[in-house]
């Protein structure tokens, strides 16, 4: 258990590295036949300079790249731990109903519903690939059912949006304007673009995203509007 300060890399290292090691040890001790580690595209680092390099080739599961953020080194180490035990980790950046409201899509959706201003970095050029939670779950299930031991696979959607594009789509879906957005300074070491190639997952697992972004966003918006009592108490924490 982490007993140091709540800021810095300590909690990430303990949770991602030591926590994963304990899970692996427990799986070995209890004879678990298949261990699936679900991680994030962050472990592969940036694949370009955000909106500037949108056309750059997406990353693959071959190599773990350099990264400046405080979470990536710990997550990369847990990936190596899992690979050493012949595990696998689909990677994603997802959204959908029930997502904790601190995350970007639900945070923007809930703030557009009257809980304050949404925050976007000043230039809004950071790019992420957004996959709906149902497609994420299909990717995890396909890896469990058909994946090969020791292989990394990807649950992505080939839906790259800059933060500004994402914000604009959410504002339109909510019927809100840009006056709802507060521009803030970028955080230190924020990678500009994450993008992954799903061709291996498609070929080996038959995985393919089914939920388009606009369809998934409308579903998400509808769910949060119908469940204010669930997220309002969390926003107030």
From TrEMBL:
Xref: Gene3D superfamilies: NAD(P)-binding Rossmann-like Domain
Domain NAD-dependent epimerase/dehydratase: 11-151
Pfam families recorded: Epimerase (PF01370)
InterPro entries membership: Epimerase_deHydtase, NAD(P)-bd_dom_sf
SUPFAM superfamilies reported in the protein's UniProt record: NAD(P)-binding Rossmann-fold domains
Family indicated by similarity: Belongs to the NAD(P)-dependent epimerase/dehydratase family.
PANTHER family for the chain: DTDP-D-GLUCOSE 4,6-DEHYDRATASE-RELATED
The protein's name in its UniProt record: NAD-dependent epimerase/dehydratase domain-containing protein
Organism: Streptomyces gougerotii
């Amino acid at each position: 258990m982490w007993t140091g300060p709540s800021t810095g890399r300590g909690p990430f290292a303990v949770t991602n590295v030591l926590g994963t090691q304990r899970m692996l040890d427990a799986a070995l001790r209890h004879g678990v036949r298949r261990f699936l580690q679900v991680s994030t595209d962050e472990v592969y680092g940036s694949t370009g300079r955000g909106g500037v390099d949108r056309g750059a080739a997406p990353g693959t599961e071959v190599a773990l790249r350099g990264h400046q953020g405080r979470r990536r080194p710990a997550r990369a180490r847990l990936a190596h731990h899992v690979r050493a035990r012949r595990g696998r980790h689909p990677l994603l950046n997802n959204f959908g109903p029930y997502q904790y409201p601190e995350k970007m899509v639900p945070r923007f959706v809930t703030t557009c519903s009257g809980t304050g201003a949404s925050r976007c970095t000043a230039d809004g050029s950071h790019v992420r690939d957004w996959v709906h939670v149902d497609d994420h779950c299909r990717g995890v299930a396909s890896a469990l059912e058909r994946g090969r031991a020791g292989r990394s696979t990807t649950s992505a959607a080939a839906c790259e949006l800059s933060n500004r594009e994402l914000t604009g789509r959410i504002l339109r879906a909510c019927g809100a304007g840009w006056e709802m957005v507060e521009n803030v300074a970028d955080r230190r070491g924020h990678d500009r673009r994450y993008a992954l190639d799903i061709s291996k997952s498609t070929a080996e697992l038959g995985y393919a995203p089914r939920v388009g972004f606009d369809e998934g966003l409308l579903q998400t918006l509808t769910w949060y509007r119908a469940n204010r009592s669930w997220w309002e108490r969390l926003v107030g924490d």
